[in-house]
Write a structure and sequence with these properties.
With 448 residues, the protein is α/β, with parallel strands linked by helices. Helix content is 40%, strand content 18%. The chain has 18 helices and 16 strands.
Amino acid sequence: MGYSKKLVARQTATGRPVRVGLVGAGQMGSGFIAQISRQPGMDITAVADIAADRAVTALANAGVTDVQQSADLAELAATVEAGGHVVVTDAVDLTRLPVDIVIECSGVPEVAAKVALASILAGKDVALMTVEADVTVGLLLAKLAQRSGVVYTVCRGDEPVECLKLMEFVEDIGLDVVCVGKGKNNPLRPTATPEELTSEAAEKGMNPRMLCSFVDGTKTMIEMADLANAANLELSQRGMIGPESTVAGLSEVFRPQADGGILDRSGVIDYATGEVAPGVFVIGKSTDPVVSEELRYLKLGEGPYFSFYRPYHLASIEAVLSIGEAVLERQPSLAPVAWNAEVTAVAKRDLKAGEKIDGIGGSTVHGVAVPAHEAAAGRELPIGLASAATLIRDVPAGVPVTYDDVELDETRTIVVLRKLQDLLLKDGNLSAIDLIFQDTVQKENTLR
């Protein structure tokens, strides 16, 4: 039985659909609203956006017109309980309404971290579309969610999650995982700036900063580092290799060097440029001659390395699958189980003391995926904290920005959470989560 049928059965049993609250009614959020409105057994009950009109329009486009707005949360809660729909401008307010799961589509790491924390503290499941937050503080959020008995997850539809699902399939059919990755449709241009990409962004109907995060490689680095932490695999190397490959050639390229490939070991994360995008892939190795012969017969290659390829990822279209996984199965689609990789900020140009770093997709830094132990040893600044940083000394172009180079805005939720996560990792004692949970509650109450 698929999730749609199970959700309908749940609605029949409980007398109401799964109530979904969504944060962010931009392009991604609007797509999510449209998709949820078509799904049986769930309802887009509450939407938060700093521009209330945008949320109202997104709901209207999905056929939802009975929308209430009010400064009185008790009044809004009563509307939700009665089966109505509401819009708020404060994302944290949404987490205080009687919804079953909160979906975050802001695209802003600080907002995503704040929404995730507020949801967990309110005892609600939460699913992020903003992978940038997960790769910065996801381990702590996942542990806090476990401690609270709720589900914290990254949404289906983005490459990290679909890579993970494909990897689980390869493991389930008994093959050894050699490499997991995604396609990138153009080579890296690490020093690209949003100003240089304004015209191209307009042609593509994109925000220049978003396009820049793709072109300078930051987005790919974030997605693959996030996968490394969820799959408990390692990066192939700092920055990964990123060779050009055809779909047919994946198993030839991503195999150990001893067998003619580019990898110095198996069990790693990397990406390919060229026609592989927008798909994801897993290279599995068969160690059984009978299995190898069967896979050859089924035209998966000559072996013993076989490529498994999914030619698409459907973003907000399949993100709804995470609602079923969380609400029905009480399982995350993707959440960190280890901290193997970071994405750290590297100067795009000579940076001067006193400058404020403009963050992901900006003109000052780009992100590079780095083994976590290497990033910690060099005190390299996570890219997810970059927009909260002001330089206190010069950093030359091409050099990683470190914690010692910046002053961080201590009022940012993501900065507080990262400090707590670093404490957790330093102690190496996950049982300390109770202490950290109490500290987090106190700090979050202070920030509100």
